[in-house]
Amino acid sequence: MNSEFTIAVHSLVLLAHLPDHMATSEEIAANVSTHSARIRKVMGFLRKAGYVSTKEGIGGGFILSCKPEEVTLGEIYRLTCQGTLKPSWCSGDESKPCMISSKMDRLMGKVFCDAEKQMENYFEGHTIGSMLEQIRAFECPQSNTESLS
Amino acid sequence: MNSEFTIAVHSLVLLAHLPDHMATSEEIAANVSTHSARIRKVMGFLRKAGYVSTKEGIGGGFILSCKPEEVTLGEIYRLTCQGTLKPSWCSGDESKPCMISSKMDRLMGKVFCDAEKQMENYFEGHTIGSMLEQIRAFECPQSNTESLS
DNA sequence: CAATCTGTAACGGTTACAATGACAGTAAGC
DNA sequence: GCTTACTGTCATTGTAACCGTTACAGATTG
Fold first, then answer.
1. Contact B105, B90 (CB under 8 A)
2. pLDDT of B100-149, one tens digit each?
3. Torsion angle, CA of B64/B67/B68/B71, rounded to 10 degrees?
């Protein structure tokens, strides 16, 4: 799996942690530990799906436009990674006369698709809000500092 | 996910379809559509785990040494891919004072681990035997030919 | 000892992914 | 209206994972 799912979740949790704060792509990138252009790309998906609002120009950035406890990780997974569980590499050869070789790829496609649905089902049980709660529940000696850096 | 899981499943289903037949890595590779050296590598894992027996030298090859209906895809997944669901890329930075940044990677690690377990749980519901049955159940006009090529 | 097979390591090409740079477009403040 | 500070997006480069392939030692048969 590529890491856009992780970046999207991290960014949303961060924004949920900073309500009413316009965070720039630079701020988010520093927090996530990646480049701001990557953040802007992922945030583009989240904007089109209505999870964040963006504002260009001075004082602009990103802000949450949804309720954290209503956004599940399943939605974010589908937005960023759906269909990527199955390897692109294909087993067998449909043109072969052998029953196994000619049908294995179709069968594995079904298996991977169903497995992915199971995983999505697990992700449905978690929300951006519950993720933030879990982070806050970790034992955190220095958690009172609200620095972004 | 890399494709060793797929190769292992395909090879085992093929061997289950050809009971009492010593299949060489060349034969299996032709059926799977890959190189024989890759087959030998994957079969090495399956041999060490006791799913197949191998024989070197003339007349050698691979043969199933388990009951197809007792081998689940979950076992094969753990053997070939366990732990690969989580991207190697890491979000955040443990050394940062920010609660979100410093704890996100640990949290995502747990999320991916649990998601993988869900997927494994799905794979547990399928066996090499049931996979073979599904292939045989496909509508197959030319399925009587038992050619390997 | 010759032929055929596994077991395993190494190398090279290709593809996917991440980091980065660049720049047009947009909005705010002066 | 000009400057500044942002987003949105594309192109390029570096890098790691993956797959195909070659090579060869070891084992077994005849």
1. yes
2. 999 999 999 999 999 999 999 999 999 999 999 999 998 655 444 454 44
3. -100
The pLDDT, as a whole number, for residue A143 is 46
> Which residue's entry shows tokens 């366990």?
B82
Cα–Cα distance list, A25 to A9, A38, A39, A53, B7 (Å): 15, 9, 6, 13, 42
- Copy the structure tokens of residue B51: 């799913």
- Bridge partners of A64, per DSSP, are A52
Mean pLDDT of the A22-36 span: 98
Q: Cβ of A138: how many Cβ atoms within 10 Å?
A: 12
Residue A30 lies in domain: 4-137
Question: Which of A13, A86, A93 has the CB atom closest to B33's CB atom?
Answer: A93
Whether residues B64 and B135 fall in one domain:
yes
Q: How many domains does chain A have?
A: 1
Is there a contact between A117 and A123 (Cβ–Cβ < 8 Å)? no
* Residue A125 resides in a domain: yes
Decide if A143 is inside a domain. no
| Both structure tokens of B145 | 């030919």
**Residue numbers of B between 51 and 110 with CB closer than 8 Å to A:** 73, 85-87, 89-93, 96-101, 103-104, 106-108
Tell me: the pLDDT tens digits for A104-144? 999 999 999 999 999 999 999 999 999 999 999 986 554 44
A36 touches chain B (CB under 8 A): no
Query: Which CATH number belongs to the domain containing residue B39 in this structure?
Result: 1.10.10.10
A6 shares contact with chain B (CB less than 8 Å): yes
